[in-house]
C-alpha cells in the first residue's frame, strides 16, 4: 500500500514506473536467482523474492487455496466452516495448516475472481495521464462501462499494447461492488484479510488489484525495519572505513612529508659540504698552481748568490707580489752586474734605478738595481677531442 501523501503519490508512481521500465529489476532478479541456486536447498527459502502470494477462490460455497503459479490445492473449506463459541467465525484450521510454513511477513493473499465476473477495456491515453492514472481511469469508467463509478471497483494495468507516439496503452479492469462486497464480507467474517483482488489467469493472477487502496491491510514489516537498520549500519561502516582510509592516507602523507623534510635538510647539508669541499679543493688547487707558477724564494736567492761576484754584497733584497725584485748593495764594478744577470733564467729585465755612486768608506760603488722574476708559463690546455682549439 502506498502510504505517501496525495501530493507525493504522483512522484512515487513516476519513480515506480521508471524503475519497472528500466532493465535493473530483471537483472537483479536474474542475479538473485543465480545466487540462490548456489545455496543449499534448505537455505534457499530464506532468500526468497519477498512476497509469497497465495490465491483464494470461491465457487459453489467452497473456498480453495493455491500458491501462485501452482495448480495444486493446498486447502479447501466450506463457508462458515469454523465458528467460535460466541458465534464469531474464525479462520479454518486447514488454512492455518497450509500456511504454517510460510513466513507471515512474506505471506500475501489475493482473492481471484472468474474472468466472467469482471469487465476489461483497453484505453489509449496521453502520456500526461500517467501521473494520475488511477484518477483518469475513474473518469473513464462512466464512458467505457455501463456502470457508475460508485457501483464498481476498478484497477488499471499498463502498458498492455503498443501505442502511437505521445500516448500509451492501459487496460481498465472493473468489477461490480455487488459481486465483490459479499465475498469480502465472508472473508472478514472468517478473520481473513486479503491484500489484493484480481482476476484468474491460468494458474496465476492477471496483475490488477481491484481492492481500493484504503482497504488494503497494513502489515507490520519488522524485516524491512531490520533491513533499513542493516543498510544504515552498512552505510555507516562504509563511511567509517572511508574515514579510516583517509586518516591512514593523511598519516602516510604526514610521515612522507616529515621524511622529505628530513631528507631535504640532509640534502642541504650534503650540498653545503660539497660546496665546502669544492671551495677547499679550489683553494688547494689555487695554492698548488700558485706554488707551481711562482719561483721559489730559495731558488731565487741561490740564483742571485751564484751569479753575483764575491766582491759584491747586498744590503737589501726584496721581492713583491708582482714579481718585482730590488737589489741594493755595493760592488767593485757595479756596471758589470747587468751582464752577470743577463743570462739568468729566473731574473730578467735588470736595470739600475738611479745613478751609481761611490762609497768613500768602503771604496766600492753603491747601486740600486731592479729586475723582474721570470715566471714560468702554464702549459697550454689540450683541445677537446674532435673539437677545434679556440
From TrEMBL:
A Pfam family matched in the record: PilN
Key words, A-Z: Membrane, Transmembrane, Transmembrane helix
Region of interest: Disordered: 370-390
Keyword Nucleus (UniProt): no
Coiled-coil stretches noted in the UniProt entry, renumbered to this chain: none
InterPro entries noted in UniProt: ATPase_NBD, Extracell_DNA_Util/SecSys_Comp, PilN
Key word tRNA-binding present: no
Domain of life: Bacteria
TM annotation in the entry: 226-246
Protein's name according to its UniProt entry: Fimbrial assembly protein
Gene source species: Rhodanobacter thiooxydans
Amino acid at each position: 500500500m502506498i502510504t505517501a501523501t496525495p501530493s507525493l503519490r504522483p512522484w512515487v508512481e513516476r519513480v515506480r514506473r521508471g524503475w519497472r521500465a528500466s532493465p535493473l529489476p530483471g537483472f537483479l532478479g536474474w542475479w538473485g536467482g543465480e545466487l540462490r541456486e548456489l545455496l543449499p536447498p534448505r537455505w534457499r527459502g530464506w532468500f526468497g523474492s519477498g512476497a509469497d502470494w497465495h490465491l483464494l477462490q470461491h465457487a459453489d460455497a467452497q473456498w480453495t487455496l493455491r500458491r501462485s503459479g501452482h495448480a495444486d490445492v493446498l486447502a479447501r473449506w466450506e463457508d462458515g466452516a469454523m465458528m467460535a463459541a460466541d458465534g464469531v467465525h474464525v479462520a479454518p484450521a486447514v488454512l492455518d495448516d497450509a500456511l504454517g510454513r510460510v513466513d507471515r511477513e512474506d505471506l500475501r493473499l489475493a482473492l481471484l475472481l472468474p474472468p466472467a465476473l469482471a469487465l476489461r477495456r483497453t484505453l489509449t491515453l496521453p502520456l500526461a495521464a500517467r501521473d494520475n492514472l488511477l484518477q483518469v481511469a475513474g473518469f473513464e469508467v462512466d464512458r467505457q462501462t455501463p456502470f457508475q463509478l460508485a457501483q464498481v471497483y476498478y484497477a488499471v494495468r499498463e502498458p498492455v499494447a503498443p501505442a502511437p507516439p505521445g500516448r500509451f496503452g492501459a487496460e481498465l479492469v472493473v468489477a461490480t461492488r455487488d459481486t465483490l462486497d459479499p465475498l469480502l464480507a465472508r472473508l472478514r467474517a472468517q478473520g481473513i484479510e486479503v491484500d489484493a483482488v484480481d482476476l484468474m489467469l491460468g494458474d496465476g493472477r492477471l496483475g490488477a488489484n481491484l481492492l481500493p487502496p484504503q482497504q488494503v491491510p497494513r502489515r507490520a514489516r519488522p524485516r524491512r525495519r531490520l533491513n533499513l537498520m542493516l543498510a544504515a549500519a552498512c552505510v555507516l561502516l562504509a563511511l567509517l572505513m572511508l574515514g579510516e582510509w583517509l586518516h591512514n592516507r593523511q598519516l602516510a602523507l604526514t610521515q612522507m612529508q616529515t621524511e622529505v623534510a628530513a631528507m631535504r635538510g640532509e640534502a642541504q647539508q650534503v650540498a653545503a659540504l660539497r660546496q665546502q669541499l669544492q671551495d677547499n679543493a679550489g683553494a688547494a688547487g689555487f695554492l698548488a698552481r700558485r706554488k707551481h707558477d711562482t719561483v721559489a724564494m730559495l731558488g731565487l736567492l741561490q740564483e742571485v748568490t751564484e751569479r753575483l761576484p764575491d766582491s759584491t754584497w747586498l744590503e737589501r733584497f726584496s721581492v713583491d707580489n708582482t714579481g718585482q725584485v730590488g737589489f741594493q748593495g755595493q760592488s767593485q764594478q757595479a756596471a758589470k752586474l747587468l751582464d752577470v744577470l743577463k743570462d739568468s733564467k729566473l731574473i730578467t729585465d735588470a736595470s739600475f734605478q738611479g745613478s751609481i755612486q761611490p762609497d768613500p768608506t768602503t771604496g766600492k760603488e753603491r747601486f740600486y738595481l731592479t729586475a723582474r722574476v721570470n715566471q714560468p708559463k702554464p702549459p697550454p690546455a689540450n683541445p677537446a677531442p674532435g673539437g677545434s682549439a679556440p
